[in-house]
Specification:
This protein is of the alpha+beta class and 470 residues long. It folds into three domains: 8-94, Uridine Diphospho-n-acetylenolpyruvylglucosamine Reductase, domain 2; 99-217, Uridine Diphospho-n-acetylenolpyruvylglucosamine Reductase, domain 3, CATH 3.30.465.10; 221-419, Alpha-Beta Plaits (2-Layer Sandwich). It is 34% helix and 21% strand. The chain has helices spanning 8-13, 28-31, 50-63, 117-126, 143-148, 156-159, 194-198, 232-246, 258-267, 295-308, 321-341, 356-370, 405-418, 434-440, 443-456; strands spanning 23-24, 43-45, 67-70, 89-92, 99-103, 108-112, 129-130, 166-172, 178-181, 207-214, 216-217, 221-229, 250-257, 281-289, 312-317, 345-350, 373-380, 385-392. The strands form five sheets. A five-stranded antiparallel β-sheet has the order 5-6-10-8-9. Strands 1-2-4-3 form a four-stranded mixed β-sheet, covered by helices on one side. A four-stranded antiparallel β-sheet has the order 13-14-12-15, sandwiched between helices. α9 packs across α11 and α12 (356-370) runs antiparallel to α13 (405-418). The longest helix is centred in the C-terminal third of the chain and has 21 residues, at 321-341. It starts with 7 loop residues before the first helix and ends in a 14-residue tail after the last helix. It comes from Roseovarius tolerans. Residues 31-218 form the FAD-binding PCMH-type domain. One of its GO terms (biological process) is respiratory electron transport chain. GO terms for molecular function: catalytic activity; FAD binding.
Length: 470
């Protein structure tokens, strides 16, 4: 079916099923994405409830108007931006933010898709529980987008991705029907799993409007340490040792490079540097333990054994909640420092964990073969996810290397693919990586994806241009 633009006449036809508050100005925040790669277009609608969402999607299906679901706008691959083609309806879930229910005894809460992640954290905490999904943009990212991209974050090692934290969904399908799948069940083997099909589909198969989320008991004690390691191989050995000691008590295990500290010193000098002398490589370890266990003592024991084994040479263990926050601020502000420096090419990749040291070594050689650049490699070592970003040398700018961006991206992604990894670990495909999915994706999987898309969205109105090539 040929798609058509959302005209003023079309928008007027929707007024009978929506409140006046549902009609929004197309402010810049709806039409831009964090890295400035695209400028979008669209008419913004923000319905009150799932019936309003269904009303909009049904009308779009009947007239062939494209729909771009919109969460917090924090996505980094352009999935929330429609830069060309017919003018779409930008369907914002921002007014659907309610916590519909919390069942602490079940470790479950039901939340609407427009809820901000930090607000979900606060609601869970008020009930004495933990919702463990955590990313740097937790103050603005919304649940629908987090599920739509199967977001990861810093706690995947212990709790899993967004997919692993969801029990059920409510969603509007591309024809406007509402799927009432908000079950709070841990076991439900009643046919195909539509929940896991919609999670990670980036708005191309429907609009998630609410979710039943898994909660967890809050750890009785939490601790954080920074430890200096010789390199990525030693970091992996330290992770194995930590899990031998603490099991599932290890919540996060982040690796960082000296380059990240240098960028912080250059762009965010108010952030306290954790070491008197910047190490080449170091890790952040976060643990959450049950009642009766002392996190600081456990980390001290871990450090002593790791030091004896030659895995670590220095370290510091947080002695207060303020110091824990300071350690985490170093990790969480590295992406902002990167943004201020301006990368030539950024890569959200994952690899089999044992391949990471070899990839980092080989990657440096590959980049050096293209030109003189700085590399800031950091990320979630505990789940194999690296943020491998390439920057100009000091004194030069990103604009000086526009002609080399594609070569860098291709070289990095080719190496990742060769080593059995993924070119999209946690950010999704969006529009940025459609070509990468075509290049590296298994052809049988791609054919199945196209069949699913054609079956659920035969008119192609849902987020056209995202994930799958036209």
């Amino acid at each position: 079916m040929t798609l058509h633009s959302a005209t003023p006449t079309f928008i007027d036809t929707l007024r009978a099923g929506l409140t006046d508050a549902s009609f929004r100005e197309a402010e810049p925040r709806y039409l831009e994405e964090p890295r400035g790669r695209w400028q979008g277009q669209g008419v913004v609608l923000a319905p009150d409830d799932v019936e309003g969402v269904a009303h909009v999607v049904r009308a779009c299906a009947e007239t062939g108007v494209p729909v771009v679901p919109y969460g917090g706008g924090t996505g980094l691959v352009g999935g929330q931006i429609a830069p060309d083609g017919p003018v779409p309806v930008i369907l914002s879930l921002e007014r659907m933010r309610a916590v519909r229910g919390i069942w602490p005894e079940e470790n479950v809460m039901v939340v609407e898709a427009g809820a901000i992640l930090q607000d979900i954290h606060d609601a869970a905490e008020a009930a004495g529980r933990l919702f463990p999904l955590s990313i740097a943009a937790k103050g603005s990212a919304r649940l629908g987008g987090l599920l739509g991209t199967n977001a990861g974050g810093v706690n995947v090692l212990r709790y899993g991705n967004a997919r692993d934290l969801c029990l059920g969904l409510e969603a509007v399908l591309p024809d406007g029907r509402i799927w009432h799948g908000l079950k709070r069940l841990r076991k439900d083997n009643t046919g195909y799993d539509l929940r896991n099909l919609l999670i990670g589909s980036e708005g191309t198969l429907g609009v998630i409007t609410a979710a039943a989320l898994k909660l967890y008991p809050r750890p009785s004690g939490e601790g954080t340490a920074l430890m200096v390691v010789e390199g990525p191989r030693a970091a992996l050995d330290l992770l194995a040792l930590a899990r031998d000691h603490l099991g599932e008590g290890v919540s996060a295990f982040e690796i960082m490079h000296r380059q990240g500290l240098e960028f912080l010193a250059e762009t965010l000098p108010d952030i306290r540097q954790p070491f008197d002398e910047m190490p080449e490589w170091f890790v952040l370890i976060d643990v959450g333990l049950a009642r009766g266990l002392d996190p600081a003592a456990a980390l001290e024991t871990l450090f002593a054994e790791a030091f004896e084994a030659g895995l670590v040479s220095d370290g510091t263990i947080a002695q207060s909640e303020a110091q824990r926050h300071a350690f985490w601020e170093v990790r969480e502000q590295i992406p902002e420092a990167n943004r201020r420096i301006g990368s030539v090419s950024s890569h959200d990749i994952s690899l089999p964990m044992s391949e990471i040291p070899a990839f980092i070594a080989r990657g440096a050689g590959v980049i050096a073969g293209i030109g003189d650049f700085r590399i800031n490699c950091f990320g979630h070592l505990g789940d194999g996810n690296l943020h491998y970003n390439v920057f100009p040398v000091s004194g030069r700018a990103r604009a000086d290397h526009v002609g080399e961006r594609d070569a860098i991206k291709r070289a990095v992604h080719d190496l990742v693919h060769e080593m059995g990894g993924s070119v999209s670990a946690e950010h999704g495909i969006g529009r940025l990586k459609v070509g990468d999915l075509e290049r590296y994706g298994d052809p049988v999987k791609l054919a199945a994806m196209r069949s699913i898309k054609a079956a659920l969205d035969p008119q192609g109105i849902m987020n056209p241009g995202a994930v799958l090539a036209g």
